Each structure stands twice: as C-alpha cells, then as structure tokens.
Predict the 3D structure of the following.
Amino acid sequence: MADETRLRILRTAGPIFAECGFEATTVREICAAAEVNLASVNYHFGSKETLYLETVQFAHREKLLRVPLPAWPPHATAEDKLRLFVRTILNRCLGDGAVGWETRLLMREMLHPTHACRPLVEEFIRPQFDQLLELLAEVLPESTDLVVRQRIAFSIVGQCLHYRFANEFVVLLIGAERDSEAYSIDALCDHITKFSLAALAAFQLDSPSPSCAARVSHGRSVRDRIPAAPIPS
Amino acid sequence: MADETRLRILRTAGPIFAECGFEATTVREICAAAEVNLASVNYHFGSKETLYLETVQFAHREKLLRVPLPAWPPHATAEDKLRLFVRTILNRCLGDGAVGWETRLLMREMLHPTHACRPLVEEFIRPQFDQLLELLAEVLPESTDLVVRQRIAFSIVGQCLHYRFANEFVVLLIGAERDSEAYSIDALCDHITKFSLAALAAFQLDSPSPSCAARVSHGRSVRDRIPAAPIPS
Amino acid sequence: MADETRLRILRTAGPIFAECGFEATTVREICAAAEVNLASVNYHFGSKETLYLETVQFAHREKLLRVPLPAWPPHATAEDKLRLFVRTILNRCLGDGAVGWETRLLMREMLHPTHACRPLVEEFIRPQFDQLLELLAEVLPESTDLVVRQRIAFSIVGQCLHYRFANEFVVLLIGAERDSEAYSIDALCDHITKFSLAALAAFQLDSPSPSCAARVSHGRSVRDRIPAAPIPS
Amino acid sequence: MADETRLRILRTAGPIFAECGFEATTVREICAAAEVNLASVNYHFGSKETLYLETVQFAHREKLLRVPLPAWPPHATAEDKLRLFVRTILNRCLGDGAVGWETRLLMREMLHPTHACRPLVEEFIRPQFDQLLELLAEVLPESTDLVVRQRIAFSIVGQCLHYRFANEFVVLLIGAERDSEAYSIDALCDHITKFSLAALAAFQLDSPSPSCAARVSHGRSVRDRIPAAPIPS
DNA sequence: AATGAATGAGCCTTCATTCAT
DNA sequence: GATGAATGAAGGCTCATTCAT
C-alpha cells in the first residue's frame, strides 16, 4: 500500500504536466486529482522537480509496455518497413486523442530540456533512431557516410514530427480542414513515405554503383534492393 | 521619451519570455532587467499577459526588419530558389547563435498556443508559406492538387524546423559533433535541398504529362522547367 | 475654466463616495467618471482625503440649496408641524431613489466620523435639531428640562432614521413587502407622528400643571396647546 | 490545536473589521495582531471575504453566549418586560465600553450589506424582533394589524439604536455632557420605556373596544392588561 | 508511514501620488 | 494650468515546502 499512493501520483501527474507544463502545474492540482494528501508529493518524491523527472520516465516506460514496438511482418520490403516506421511515429504523435500526452511531455522536454532529457533519449528515442538508421543502411550504398544516413533519418522523422510540433500552425495555415481526409494519419503516412522514398533516390545515385536504371523509377528500385529484415517502429 | 520605457520593456521581455516561458517568467525579472519600475508593465501593457502578446508580435516584426526576406537573384533556377528558401529558414531557426530567441518564442507558441498565435501565423508565417507554395507550383504539374502542394511544403519546412524543435535530441543522438561541419547550416541546407528536390520527382511523375524521361534524373528536370522569377524566401 | 474641472470632480465624487465608501473608492474611478485627468484630484484637492472632506460638505450645501427648508404654513397646529417635520426627515432619508446618496454619505460619517463630521453637524444638522427642540418647547410644559426635550427629540428622529440605517434589516425582517403601501413614506409619517404625539402626553403629565383632562385624549390636547409658529424641516 | 489558529484569527479579526471596515482592513494587519502567519487566513478561510463573513457570524454567536437573552422575572408586568427589553438592547449597543465592537460590525452590515447580512438577521435579529412583537401582541387589542405592530416595534427599536447609529452626532449636538447621568443607559432606558408606553396608548384607542377610560391614564392601563409571562428580550 | 496544519517567499496587480513637461 | 508618464508601497493571494503528530 506504500507504493499505491506513489503510483497514483505518478499516473495522475503525467497528463497534467503534459497539458500545463512544469511551471504552470501545481502540486495541489496533482494531489487533488490523485486524491492524495498535499504533502504526499514531497514525502514520496522529495520535491516537485523530482516528481517531474520520475513522471516523464515513468510515462514513457509505461507507454513502451502498452504499445510495444511492432515486429516487421515477414518478407516486408524496404518500402513496407519505411511505411510502417512512418506510420508508427505518426501514430505516436497524433494518435487517438488521449494517448497523445506522452508526446506532449516529450515535446516540452525538447523545448526546455531537463535532467530527464538524456535518459529519455537513450532509453526511448535512440532505439527507434538506430532502427531507422539500420533500415536506411539497407537501402543506401554501403559507402554512404553515417552522417548522411543520420541527416536522411532526421529528414524523415522531421516530416512526421512537424505535424505534432507545428500542429497549431498547420491548422491555422490550412484552415479548418485539418481533420479532413487529406491530413489523416493514413494520408500523411502515404505522403511522407512517397516523398522520402523518392528522395532516397538522390542518395543512391551518389554512390559509384553501376546500374542506374534499377534505382530510380517509381521508388521501385528501393524496394527491390531491400532484403526482409525486422525493424522495430 | 514617452515610448522609451515601453520599448525597453518590450525589448527586454523577448529573450526572457523565450528562455523561461510565460509562466516561469516574472514581471519583476523583466522590470529589473529593463531597469524600469515594477509597475511600468501594468501601466504600459495592463497585464503580464498583454505584455506577452505584444512582445511576441514585436519580436517578429523586429526580426523581419532585421532579416528581411531576400529577393531572388536574377535568373535563379528553381533549385537556386529552393536552396535559398531552405537557407533562409535554417538561418532564422539556427542562425547567429544567441539571436535565436525569437524562434524559441515561436516554438513555445506552437506548443502552447495563446492568442498571440493567430496573428503570428497570419503576419509572419503565412507569407513565407505562400511563397513556398508558389515556388512549388512552378515545379509541379499544373494539375497538382493544392493539398498535395501543402503537404510537400510541410515536408520541406518540417525537415528544417526539426533541427530547432528537436535540437536537444539531435545533439544527444549524434553526440558532441553537433557543431561540426556536417551539421552546419551550409551542410544542412545542401542536404535538405538535395533531399527535397529528389522527392519532388515522385510528384512530377503523378501527372499524366507525356515525357517522363526529361524530368526525373538527377533532379535536373526540375531545374529545367522553372522559369527565372524572383521569389522571396 | 479653472473651476470647471474642480466642480465636475466634486459633483462626480459625491455619489461614488456615498456608494462605495472612502476606502473602496479609487481616485481613478472618480477621474474616469468625471472625465478628467487622473492627476486632477491631487492637483485641485491635494489628496484623496481632502477631496472627500470637501465633497461631503459640498454635497450637503448643494442639497440645502436644492431642497430648502420649507416654511410652516400659516395657522399650522403643533400636530401639523410635527407631521411636516417627520415627513421632511423621511423624505431626506428615503426619498426618491437618486436623491438618497447625500444621506448615505451622512450615514458613513456617523459610522466612521472624519474631520468632515463637525462642520456637517453644525451647518446642517443642528439647525434642524434646534427647530425640533423649539417645537417641543411649545408643546411641553415650560418647566421641562432641556435634557428631556433633547431625549424626546432623539426619540422622534430615531424612529425616522431607523428606516434608513436599518433599512436592510427592516427589509429582511418584514419580507418583500417593504415597498408596499404599509411602509410608504406617507404611512410611516402617519405612524411616527401618531406614535410620538401620543408619547408626548406622558411628558405633559409630569409637570405640576392643573387640567389633566385637556391633554391626553386622542392627542388632541397637544394640538390645542400649540400656537402657530414656523419650524423648519 | 487544530482550530486554535483559526480561533485566534476569528477573535482578532472582529474588532479590526469593526473598527476599519472590510476594505480598510488588511489581512496583514489581522495576521500580525493575531500573531499568525500571513498565509493562515487563506489557508483557513480561503479568502479575506470569507473570513469577514465568518467573523461577523462568529462575533454575534459569541456575544449571544456571553450576553444571553434574560428570562422574564416571574410576575413581570408588561411595563417591566418592555423596560427589560429596552435595557437589553441598549446594553448590547452601548454597554461595556470597549466591547461594543460587535455592534459596529452590525452597523457596517446595515450600511453596506454583504452576504453576511441575511444569516445575521435570521439568527440573531429576528428572534429578538419576534419577542418584541409578541410582547406588543399582549398589550394591543387582538384586532391590531401585524403591520401596525411591526411599525411600533421599529419605533421602539429605532429609539434605542439611534444612540448607536447617530452616536457621533448626538455627542456633537449635546456637547461634552454625553457621558453624564442624563444619557446613561439607565436614564435612556427610563426615557424610552416611558415614551413608548405612552405612545402605545394611541394604538389601544384605535380598536373598537368599549371602555376607553380604563386604558389611557398614566400608562397604567397597559400594565393592567398584561398577564405575567416570560418573554426573552 | 502518512497527514493536517502551518510557513515564508514570492506572485501579479492596484493604489495614491509625484514629476517633467 | 494641466497632463501623460512614472513611481514605490502595499494589497490579496498562491506556491512549494516543512513540521508536529
């Protein structure tokens, strides 16, 4: 029963911190919502700041358990994998209303990094990033520099995250049609996958590899060169 | 002398709000830094909130004056224009070391939109966005849907902004080499331009236009189709 | 034109001070309502407190000019005079909505006397009080002590003022019928006059005067003994 | 020990609110006088306003305990009862020198009613008022209208309260002899009782009852008609 | 182990007032 | 003579935190 209070606080604090930010969130608010004593936060966590740090990590650990990284389907082509990767990121960022608060927490961490940032990256971000790098390694010539792969990875991730980070601006720029089919997760996934696959062609050309014809057209060349291998989302 | 105090507050408040956010910033802090009386903020702006709103708009207006949108050089190709556009955005986001606080302000606005958001978008964001759309219109088949162009524009902008939004994560992911040549503005500009130009190929193919061959290869086709015309970034 | 601002402030301040009290009234409020500069109060009156003092006296001086003390009608009996006196006080206290704010000012002065109190009493209250004492002198035996007359005067005035001072309580005690005919100024005037006339009988008896019969019945005795003499309200 | 701070605040706030009024009283002042932390008021009462409301009711509840309504002595005549009633009110208003602050609180409430007003009237004022009405019912003909009895009650109470409400003016009008024997509680009680008893005669006459002679003279008729019954003041 | 009470620092805001023009 | 700008003091209130139990 000792940990129950602790857990309840942890679970309650997440969405509140995500919604209001660290400063605007009050310990009172959290304790009231969690229906625990006002002094509990300091008793269990020592300070508001410590609670925040633990909340951030707890939130992502829980999310990882609840939404485990999907394994690649067998015989998935590179295009399949990329599409799945993009979809996974989009789902995390935009998906399903109530699920989004973990991402909000993450965004705040990006904007104003705290001590929670480094472990967050190492535990939850780097694995995904490495898998994307791996996927790219399969598509690109072996001679491609790591830096190039990283920049390409950021280009892909950046397109996805933009709809979370700049969501407010996107909505204002395109008007009220934000919720329409054209900006559904499906549509965005198709677009970003198509955009990125086509872009990859330019980096395949750089290498001194022989047959140009096979690579470019319709993005099909990409698919062709990729062996089926598991890549988490 | 009437507006001097007002201006000093406005100029001082910007970086502080950018650094700490609205909640964590105190009026005392601003007034102390601006060396004005504590009551001045309420006298000139009525409230902390109003000060924030005016600060945000003032900051971007000033920035626009200081870094005016560059005109296209004569005879610029589409690739030239795109490269210039990308460079301008990157400069705004990452440029000039300590000067980046206006963008931080903007990021906060995206994360936690206030009433300052809409005028910000209309006055400062939309013009840029429209110019990018225009540029894309020149490159893409006439039949291309507006929605498609918008999504492509977001794909381009998203790649750039990612280095601002997720900067902290980027640094942690690639290690201490962030400041190296590989992630300089020049290098990023080259990369994003190359990536995007190649991607555009996929959307040029969609149209029922006849000669496919000329367009795609090396991104050269894009350049060919674009008449020289000035487009601001 | 120098005095116009001064006058406008004076006229505006009265009702506001009456409504809100000295503390709760702000100089800003008055200046805004009077449509004069914020610094005008201090310029013309030196301080908020001085303004208050002058406002109180100004208010009653104006009221006296606007509602001069009525002269007794010729051949008025003592009962007539008393009735007229009571009616005048009731009118001042309760009369006509908008007119009541001067009395509110007066009430505040009673509750929390300021320097404005003494001149107020001497200039505006004592004349009325003296006239009531005079009227009583006509009705009562010559041997009646001044103190007795004063206490009787207070008994009469007290009955009237109660409907101003304790108005809120009266309303709550008798329910919503406060505005009904039974508590109209006319009805109250009748009641208080009747009540007081009857009471006077007891003080007429005290004296060693001879004929008892003439005095008491129906209050008529009082009327009989009173010669017509002017009494201000 | 839980409520000790709360009680100390409540007890301290009473006289201060009474002296200065709600607006002019500061929470700091109260806390300093009560020797409690500045934040205590908000902790225990939520706001200055709530503290005021609770203070007003607490004050009267305490006063009621300290000065309980006296029971009628056995075989008390109507005159006895009226005298006792008047004395009780006068004692409440003027009694005990420095203790009169509860009444000041009440006066403020009359002048500028707050939410504290209604419960105050219902809990503390109405019981007294009802007992006076009852007492009058015994003295007056059965046919007497309730409204008439109420107005008479107000006439009696009004005489008493006048020495509290208009105390400042009374003092100024009669000069420095205010503290003399002539305006002692005893003397005022005698006067008001005598004045009111005599006045009642006029209302006894109104009824169509037969024998006029017995009632009027010397106020004795009143006494005669009243059966001995306990009436609280 | 857990809590209700209490704390002191600090928040934004408002005030009457003053000053330079 | 009159005002817009500025001032410093103080206001009520909220905060994260601590303490005695």
Observations:
- Residues 1-2, 5, 36-40, 43-44 of chain B lie near DNA strand F (CB under 10 Å from a C1').
